[in-house]
Amino acid sequence: MAHDHVMPTDLTRNQELVLGTLNHAPAPLSAYDILDLLRSEGLRAPLQVYRALDKLVERGLAHRLESLNAFVACADEHCHRKGLIAFAICEGCGKVDEFADAVIEERLGTWAGTTGFKVERTTMEIRGKCAECLKAA
Amino acid sequence: MAHDHVMPTDLTRNQELVLGTLNHAPAPLSAYDILDLLRSEGLRAPLQVYRALDKLVERGLAHRLESLNAFVACADEHCHRKGLIAFAICEGCGKVDEFADAVIEERLGTWAGTTGFKVERTTMEIRGKCAECLKAA
DNA sequence: AATCAATACGTTATAGCATAACGCTGCTGC
DNA sequence: GCAGCAGCGTTATGCTATAACGTATTGATT
Question: Of all nucleotides in the shown strands, which has a C1' nearest the CA of B16?
């Protein structure tokens, strides 16, 4: 059930390379990590990677992890989700678990309603240790 | 009721300068912003600011906003809170509103319980427009 | 086909954020 | 005293991200 990633057919070469790299990575990658992995494919400059990442994130095919300055492929192959996604980042193995919670989202909506704040984007990142790493310790 | 900040007495000079700067700022400041504001006080190097910030964040007197790479003074004068704090960041005026929500926290606990993930730290940052900026638009 | 607009591309340079590593200072507790 | 610890100051460096330029490709319209 691993690697059940979707690779849309309308990506540009650079976007495809970057998404492919993220799909195969076991943990988040920084833009510069990606660049280094793709030098053999001819990429030379950070901007080539950042531009691809921008598009991928915009389309929901990848996510940016603010607390790591790094990126992951979206785990949900039908992730056209507009709403809140939470990320659980293991400090042990680096793996990231992605999940959505309607209750949290609704709760946020309530808060926004009472304060008059218009929510455009939410990032929620949980740092800790995953079950596997806890077992191993 | 503004500026009801507490300034502990056991801070070092650099920590006090940095916290004072954050307390008077209307919006988050980057470490380099802080440095520039404190050159007149004799600070010269980023590390002087980062070291102070580390301690302040550790003590809960300041918070780091991951999505901005910037820092704010803690808004709650009794913020010895260990739990989840959410930040609402206005893209219009830059102001940050800080709040805690027990339901979200509890919900997170539930998720952690079922997956066996041990939560150590959570960052939640909401981007959007505050009521005032919406009115002005 | 010719044109135009929009998007992507490649490159160089630069800006912005953060830490490593060194040695020194000053305090606290034994 | 002096050992241990926290903080300090400085230089150098590394990592993250974007500005600005011109070219190329695509796709729609005429």
Answer: D7
